[in-house]
């Protein structure tokens, strides 16, 4: 190297840089060289060179305590210098270790990718900016994230001397936390179409990552009971305005909350809560004003809670969806001494917007489900009688699964000659249309029953009737034919002969419980469901001893996701083997055992009939 090389250093009076020299032992060392131009008496140009054999001696006083991690690697990509911040990262990111190379492997860390990035920087001199490196903890629960920038160190002669890295641990950065929270919100908020659950998901998600205390209060239009608040009294300073749907706090006892979930929330007309509800704009109060002369003067209970719990910063955000304001979400800080900032307000509004859409979907679903259930209840029988031939009991359970209000039905039809018809059916599809179809089919079956036809003929006529009704509903053919059908089991019991005739249209087999407790299933040759126009049904007759029991049911009782229906039938036969129980008690036992407190995936209809011990004389 020639210090006086003007191509390399021009006419500058002073220069410095890093160079690689060969140690007398044969290895390469990194030197810091500083040159100062001198003028001799003979006016010859000379240089005074200062060589520091350890770059750390020069860099450490300046960079060792920098808040960012800084490291230097030589041309062999061996780490030759680290500042204090970088050394603290060595346990997590192993390439920050003196003497090591970036290829060093560690669980949960992609060492090869990091080494490749450093080699490319050394080869072509193009810096790599803000490269993200991740290290997952051994238990898989913690992610460490490092944002690193690499650039090449060149000597005074332009030759590469190594690679320098600047790194920042962004595992807990504010921006990353915000993105992570919003990503989590898209998964956790709205996991069910339930208004109360959705509101609680928002509250729990925001505590403590955004606020110390959060409430979600919805207007009366959001909940099914649309008139409850109108019956409550209001005063000049306190109006029933919301239902508390969600609440969460860093304190388990919820000392900040005047109302629990499900209770009606009262607010002063002049409060920021009503202002947000009426204007649709957020209320942002980084430092709460609790002085005299504010709206808190007419709300002493809230003022007391604010004082006792140390509330000092407040955000109230409207829950807006499709042009409608569904309620408000309130974010409060108590133990966290930092006041809310504008970025906190923006984050709260984003969370509230996502929750509002889920709440609106839940509201619409709740309304439709409530209407379907009401229609279903109106169309199902309330009082059934076995007309002296049988003792009957029944149960109906709507599904707990979203969107599955179905068209299950049951009926007992006295036929006037001492016989009795037993019917259980299940309309395909769900919702209000399925419930309405169920009502039409139940009426049709009753009408056909009164004609005294055998079961196979009843189902054949019902099949053709459903097709005809669908054709009439289709009108002139502008819309496709609705092929909604139903499965059905139809049985007629004659107490004089003690014989039961039955036919099945794609339905689970009836269960017969003999007086001894033995349970069998009447496997009747099953035809297709009614409504397909393919009906060809067979009729089977069996004799029932005195005190025998017949159980008709829909598939929701015996079918479970991922389980074979034979397993469900076996469980049913086991619980039915209790001949001493009255039909009412047996119904309770069957439902309790088969459902066992778990959410029902489909509607369940159950009809149990026990033959009487003395047959009436037929006139």
UniProtKB/TrEMBL annotation:
Domain PPM-type phosphatase: 390-611
Keywords: ATP-binding, Hydrolase, Kinase, Magnesium, Manganese, Metal-binding, Nucleotide-binding, Phosphoprotein, Protein phosphatase, Transferase
Class of enzymatic activity (EC top level): hydrolase
Gene Ontology molecular function, alphabetical: ATP binding; kinase activity; metal ion binding; protein serine/threonine phosphatase activity
Family annotation (PANTHER family): STAGE II SPORULATION PROTEIN E, STAGE II SPORULATION PROTEIN E-RELATED
Domain of life the protein comes from: Bacteria
Cross-referenced Gene3D superfamilies: 3.30.450.40, PAS domain, PPM-type phosphatase domain
Main function: Primarily acts as an independent SigF regulator that is sensitive to the osmosensory signal, mediating the cross talk of PknD with the SigF regulon. Possesses both phosphatase and kinase activities. The kinase domain functions as a classic anti-sigma factor-like kinase to phosphorylate the anti-anti-sigma factor domain at the canonical regulatory site, and the phosphatase domain antagonizes this activity.
Species this protein is from: Nonomuraea mesophila
Catalytic activity: O-phospho-L-seryl-[protein] + H2O = L-seryl-[protein] + phosphate
InterPro entries: Bact_Sigma-Reg, GAF, GAF-like_dom_sf, PAS-like_dom_sf, PAS_4, PPM-type-like_dom_sf, PPM-type_phosphatase-like_dom
Protein name as annotated: protein-serine/threonine phosphatase
Catalytic activity, EC: 3.1.3.16
GAF domain span: 206-369
């Amino acid at each position: 190297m020639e210090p006086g090389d003007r191509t390399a250093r021009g006419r500058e009076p002073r220069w410095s840089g890093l160079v690689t020299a060969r140690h007398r032992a044969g290895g390469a060392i990194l030197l810091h060289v500083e040159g100062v131009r001198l003028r001799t008496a003979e006016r010859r140009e000379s240089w005074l060179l200062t060589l520091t054999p350890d770059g750390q001696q020069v860099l450490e006083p300046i960079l060792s305590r920098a808040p960012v991690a800084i490291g230097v690697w030589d041309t062999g990509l061996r780490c030759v210098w680290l500042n204090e911040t970088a050394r603290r990262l060595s346990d997590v990111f192993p390439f920050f270790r003196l003497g090591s190379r970036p290829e060093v492997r560690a669980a949960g860390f992609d060492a090869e990718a990091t080494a490749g990035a450093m080699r490319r920087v050394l080869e072509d001199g193009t810096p790599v900016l803000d490269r993200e490196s991740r290290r997952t903890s051994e238990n898989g629960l913690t992610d460490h994230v490092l944002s690193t920038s690499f650039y090449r160190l060149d000597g005074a002669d332009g030759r590469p001397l190594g690679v320098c890295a600047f790194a920042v641990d962004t595992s807990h950065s504010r921006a990353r936390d915000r993105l992570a929270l919003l990503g989590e919100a898209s998964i956790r908020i709205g996991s069910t179409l339930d208004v109360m659950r959705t509101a609680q998901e928002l509250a729990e998600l925001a505590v403590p990552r955004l606020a110390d205390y959060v409430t979600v209060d919805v207007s009366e239009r959001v909940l099914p009971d649309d008139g409850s608040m109108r019956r409550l009294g209001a005063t000049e300073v306190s109006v029933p305005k919301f239902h508390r749907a969600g609440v969460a706090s860093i304190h388990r006892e919820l000392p900040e909350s005047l109302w629990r979930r499900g209770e009606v929330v009262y607010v002063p007309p002049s409060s920021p809560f009503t202002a947000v509800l009426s204007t649709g704009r957020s209320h942002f109060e980084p430092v709460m004003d609790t002085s005299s002369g504010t709206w808190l003067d007419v709300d002493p209970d809230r003022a007391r809670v604010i004082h006792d719990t140390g509330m000092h910063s407040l955000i109230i955000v409207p829950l807006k969806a499709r042009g409608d304001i569904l309620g408000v979400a309130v974010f409060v800080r108590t133990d966290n001494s930092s006041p809310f900032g504008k970025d906190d307000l923006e984050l709260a509004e984003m969370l509230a917007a996502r929750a509002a859409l889920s709440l609106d979907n839940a509201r619409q679903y709740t309304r439709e489900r409530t209407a379907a259930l009401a229609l279903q209840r109106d169309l199902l029988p309330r009082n059934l009688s076995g007309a002296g031939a049988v003792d009957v009991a029944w149960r109906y359970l709507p599904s707990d699964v979203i969107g599955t209000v179905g068209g299950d039905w049951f009926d007992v039809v006295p036929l006037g000659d001492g016989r009795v018809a037993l019917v259980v059916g299940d309309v395909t599809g769900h919702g209000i249309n399925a419930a309405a179809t169920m009502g039409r089919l139940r009426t049709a079956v009753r009408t056909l029953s009164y004609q005294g036809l055998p079961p196979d003929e009843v189902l054949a006529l019902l099949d053709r009737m459903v097709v005809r009704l669908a054709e009439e509903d289709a009108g002139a053919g502008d819309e496709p034919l609705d092929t909604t059908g139903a499965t059905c089991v139809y049985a007629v019991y004659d107490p004089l002969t003690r014989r039961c005739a039955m036919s099945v249209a794609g339905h689970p087999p009836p269960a017969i419980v003999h007086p001894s407790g033995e349970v069998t299933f009447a496997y009747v040759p099953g035809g297709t469901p009614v409504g397909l126009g393919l009906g060809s049904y067979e009729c089977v007759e069996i004799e029932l001893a005195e005190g025998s029991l017949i159980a008709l049911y829909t598939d929701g009782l015996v079918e479970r996701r991922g389980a074979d229906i034979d397993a469900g039938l076996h469980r049913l036969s086991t619980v039915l083997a209790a001949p001493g129980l009255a039909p009412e008690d047996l119904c309770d036992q069957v439902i309790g055992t088969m459902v066992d407190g778990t959410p029902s995936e489909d509607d369940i209809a159950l009809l149990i009939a026990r033959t009487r011990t003395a047959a009436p004389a037929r006139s």
